[in-house]
Amino acid sequence: MKTITIDPITRLEGHGKISIFLDGKGDVENAYLQIPELRGFERFCQGRRAEDMPQITSRICGVCPVAHHFAATKALDAAFHVEPPVAAKKLRELMYMGYFIYDHILHFYYLGGPDFVVGPDAPASKRNVIGVIEKAGVEVGKEVIKHRAYGQKITAILGGKATHPVCGLPGGVSKGLNKDEVKEIEKMAKSCVEFAKFSLKLFDDIVLKNKKYVDLILSDPYQLKTYNMGLVDKNNKVNFYDGKIRVTDQKGNEYDKFDGKDYYKHISEHVEEWTYIKFTYLKAIGWKGFNDGKDSGIYRVGPLGRLNAAQGMATPLAGKEYKRFFETLGGKPVNSTLAFHWARLIELLYATERAMELVKDPEITSQKIRNPVGEPGEGVGVTEAARGTLIHHYKLTKDGLVEKANLVVATTNNAGAINMSVRDAAKGVIKKGKVDDTVLNMVEMAFRAYDPCFACATHTLPGGMPLEIKIYDSNRKLYKTLKQNI
Amino acid sequence: MRTIILGVGNQILGDDGVGIHVVNEVKKQINNPDVTVDDAITGGMNLLDLIIGYDKAIIVDAVKSEHGEHGAVRRIPLSDFNTLHSCNPHDVSLVQAIEMAKKMGEKRIPKEIIIIGVMMKNIPCEFNEKLSKEIQKAVPKAVKMTIKEIDNN
Question: B3-151: which CATH number, 3.40.30.10, 3.40.50.720, 3.40.50.1450, 3.30.460.40?
């Protein structure tokens, strides 16, 4: 293959741009997804007060404020050498479940689900939540809105504004729960459990009972045999808030397991000249290009990565679904990118069940919610954002100011895999130079499954994910441009 | 008549946060119990949640211009946008969120939604608390237009 250099000036910021290069026969030789990456955050943090980090980092993006908030708070726990009281950890985790509930509902019904519920062949203008409601009915739509709001309400009761949590402090949380709040959360969580069950049934009826969709899930362009990564508890069950980072291999066996604080010994970042996004990989295996298989250090995170990297779910109903997931899709690990959607719903069920467990825990109303901090030092905090493993690492001065900050965000962990999925989807649909609009659908489905959060700032771009695909022939001449939402 | 003024954007992302700079100034200049002034770092669905129940919503935001316009301020009724907000793949646009809410029989959507848009040609991608000179210059005009919009029924 000829080396392709894309001038950094053409690095596109603001929306997704995909460049596809064809070979002499008109088949796909390679594809590059260029996505915007916000820069300068580490520098921005230098010299700031450590205790401001949970608020500042929650403003990095409007998508994962809660995940950043708690990754930051946990990094501060470590940096100030303080272990929060048990009740504080439970309050944080309960709030975290609220975040997973609204985030996963949003993705399934509004963003990813339309591909299946409305259908992968439907025009882009129909593959949206309105299309879902037209197919599933207005009553379902009302339930979607209600339960997404419940997730946000749970987060807001515990954390202040749902989009700007303010409760996390090194050593604990700033606010506990009273009995009335507990009652209110319990009522909402209970309803969310039923809604999660309903969502899985909907997935069953619409997707799994449709042979065409199952064939699509299992089709070659959507398979990727990477390593998988996620946080697990002491029983190797999926955990969103805390635990050790576990990595499994292409056979589903444990390849690595480590404390978050040692992340830099286990993962490393690769830089490509055509994008600002960094690509993480398993250090011991090394960067071997955009390839899957056991000799390449690329791994996946997020719902599918987590399910593959664990040995089950810690709650009963989600546990059953976990088993069924692997039985149905041919055992562990499941390598199909489109299985992310099903995995996400199983996690939704887990989040609702776990919220019920936590809110019923007598300790949740304890007022012992903060321990005094020690001397400032260095700390790492790891959580599972809805879209994958998130790492915050701070080094503090003796006055408690940030000297160094390093963040490894979920979409960075998935960046290598997303790029490969885009390439493979393009390969599957472009043959002998024949290009039509289905390329947009198939490629979009490939990266949408990951629920990536491409940092995206200024607002009034067209709604929906703007996407531009440029296809170049074997002489690197522009052959065709496909656009959506631009 | 109840009005909400929302500054939208990220104030640690340079010019992206211009909407918030504007509403902070508006807050100082008005004192009207029927007007709520707030900010939001969010789009689509969350934005809809914030404006529901008001008669009128004024959203102050950075708007990516199509033809390189930079620093101008425009009044744009929401109905003129076919799509708005959240280039983020993890959200829907406000227009889509409203369309969906209407389908669900939601009656509390503001009758009038006006965008006060500060036009900019580039999308800020670097963390910074300050506005650039050109965009800073647009703030007083945006403040004036926002306040005028409150009385413009």
Answer: 3.40.50.1450
